[in-house]
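Below is our example:

___
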Amino acid sequence: MGPYWEAMALLFERLAEFDKPAIVHVEPDFWGFQQQQSNGDPASVRVLIHEHVEGCDDQPETLVGFGHCIVQLSRAISPKVVIGFHASRWAGTPSSMIEFLTAVGATDADYIGMDILDRDAGCFEEHTDPNCQRTDGPWYWDETNQTSPNFHEYLAYSKQLGDGLGKPIIWWQIPFGVPSEMSGGEAGNYRDNRVRYIFSHIDEFIAAGGLGAAFGTGAGNQTYITTDGGQFQSAVTAYYANPVPLP
């Protein structure tokens, strides 16, 4: 934990030197794994803090203190940082996730990070890439929101988490895939419809508590802005020509 805390402090020190707003997404998926492994009790997991960190002597040496200490370091060293914890859908029920994340300090942070899907839907459908071997589909959601799974279901879930924690949401690692009637695709050119849906329904994401969306490939061999036929560039250009204000 010594090198870990040194690196954490260094991160905030560098961001303080940068002296501009920056987003820090604290340990994505770590909190979901810890919720499961601790049976929802973050106070049961010991974490070394006091001998390595100045300014967190008031925190218990558990996961509870771990999360709160990270937020305290951010506030003390780099006050312009926007910091948030990650809510992994597979961690548990929404109510159990809200309880766990509240205990570890997520409500003291600025936002909640969530992911819609970390690979192109078509990569999972094709099921040949080693990065896409999950079996929990369908992954290509219904844009008309008439059949399940669909975007309205997901946004209702997101709003439940955001409202429960009292924080806005930033969705991250959203895949770049291009919509297609044909299932699957091939490496670098898999299908997905999240870019199209998000940019054509931004008001729905804001209504669900959205603060922002970050796009990126969760692994290799996915569709990217260099292989999407200009979809993402066109969507971003159109958005910035007429941006949607936040409440």
